[in-house]
Design goal:
The chain is mainly alpha-helical. Helices cover 52% and strands 6% of the residues. Helix 3 crosses helix 7. Belongs to the ATP12 family.
Length: 268
Amino acid sequence: MNFLSYIGRRSNTNFAPLGSALLKKQRFYKKVDILRDDSESKPMFKVTLDGRVLKTQGGKQLKVDSEPLALAIAEEWAGQTQNLEIASMRLTGLAFTATDNPLKCTPASIASKLLEYVESDTVLYHNEESRSLHDAQVKHWNPLIENTNKELGTVLKPTGNIFGPEISAEDKAKFERWILSLNEWSLHGLQYATETAKSLIIAFNVLNWKITADEAIELATLERRVQSKIWGAVEWHHGLEDEELLSRLSAACLFVYLNSNNSFDKPL
């Protein structure tokens, strides 16, 4: 699954965390490189612009323990033309957020926030009023639920009840164990993926290689797609929206993957 090819697609929406270098609108550097730092307990990697270490909005040097992530961030900067496309540098934005941590997030607080998505997960709500939509949800969403149940040992079931599905304490605990099995930086990526898809179940499936990023966006926008077939759609508008979602989700998933793999031992 080639997440990297989707990340740089043009976007009209800026991400929130902007580093000091990102505040400049024009490219102000020529050479991009990474620098290995062995002064800490484990090797750390820094991105340099003309020899100067890239800093976050909070003024901290950006340093990561994943060489592949450092190279991917460096590639975002190297790929910029005369004008900086701020919104296209999503890995940089996620790395800045994880470094500065402006909301003072902890693994426990991120897990708590993500668990809220389980009870309100889009995939668990099936529309009982529209036959065409309900059939599409059963066909396309149920496999996601089955994959999740198989991998985590949960017993999630979809519902047509407006009050939502019943999620047992045991199932929540299983989700929480999986969430907390990720390192802190990966959790920032998981949260971004979940917020983009509006579904922890969809994020779980794409991160566990059950579906592609393209398929994930199609599934996340299933209701809109079904309704568009009935009522028509403004294709160019939805196309731009889907490109934006795909770029966000791909960056989030790649961020999780690269933070879980510090070397080039595993294929991307």
